[in-house]
Design brief:
40% of the residues lie in helices and 13% in strands. By secondary structure, the chain is an alpha/beta fold.
């Protein structure tokens, strides 16, 4: 892989791109995944327009939110690949959310957003709250979609917080979103080491893409670096079509001019 896209070399983290290459499939591809599916009507509809333009691969669905029911029905009808977008930090806005779930999620949100270190530290006093809130969202996803989630990530990436990872709250075998990929110099060596070790731990129980990037900032040098990674491995690009610049990128055809001959996945598969 090109040196500028590597974050850390850890032998135990198996390369999805390498596995695909062993089976004769193309090694490189881009997965464009839209977060916050079902958060509200505007978010769902904007994302649906990007699918209509053929510019999206999959979504991460929020449960217990304003538009969760309709969004789930749309995903089933249109055969959109949906994973679970675990939410600890944005208040649930859907109907029929129990008082206990509201209370427990509020406790977790207050703790996780207290400071940047909170998510890296295991809090034994909140273990049962994390287990309850994760379990409730898994159950609600099953109710809405009629199946277990095959893929899980997190709102504000809080699925990577220590209580979730150390508590093994994500079902084994599910695909899980890894840490962001950074070029050398973008983050400190300690930061990259921590992220690499966490990805190593995740890889023992879950499948992951080779690289993860957010779409913004949409500027040529950065897009070229993402494209370079996609020629050798499987790249997930986290997107938010409710953002006007991202929406324009997908619906104007700009995304296809960027991709060129790099395959765009039609679903989230590694």
């Amino acid at each position: 892989m090109p040196q500028e896209t590597e974050i850390v070399s850890i032998p135990e983290v198996r390369s999805a791109g390498a596995v695909a290459g062993q089976t004769g499939e193309p090694r490189g591809r881009v997965i464009l995944n839209a977060d916050d599916w079902g958060r509200d009507i505007a978010t769902t509809d904007r994302t649906m327009e990007c699918f209509a333009a053929g510019a999206m691969s999959s979504v991460s669905a929020m449960v217990f939110m304003e538009d969760s029911e309709r969004a789930a029905a749309l995903a089933r009808e249109k055969k959109i690949d949906a994973g679970l977008h675990l939410n600890f930090t944005s208040p649930f806005t859907g109907p029929n959310v129990s008082e206990r779930l509201t209370r427990e999620q509020s406790r977790l949100g207050s703790y996780l957003q207290r400071n940047r270190l909170a998510q890296t530290l295991y809090h034994p006093g909140l273990a049962s709250s994390f287990a309850y809130v994760v379990s409730a969202q898994l159950d609600e996803f099953r109710r809405l979609f009629g199946k277990n989630p095959e893929r899980i990530d997190g709102h504000h990436h809080m699925h990577l917080c220590s209580n979730v990872i150390r508590g093994r709250l994500l079902p084994e075998g599910t695909l899980v979103r890894r840490n962001f990929s950074f070029a050398a110099g973008e983050k400190s060596a300690l930061n990259r080491f921590y992220r690499g070790r966490q990805d190593q731990q995740l890889a023992r129980r879950h499948g992951m893409a080779d690289f993860l990037y957010s779409l913004p900032p949409i500027e040529p040098q950065r897009l070229n670096r993402i494209a370079a990674a996609a020629r050798t491995g499987i790249v997930e690009v986290e997107t938010h079509p409710i953002n006007p610049r991202e929406y324009e990128f997908f619906t104007s055809g700009e995304v296809f001019r960027w991709l060129g001959n790099i395959p765009l996945a039609t679903s989230y598969r590694i």
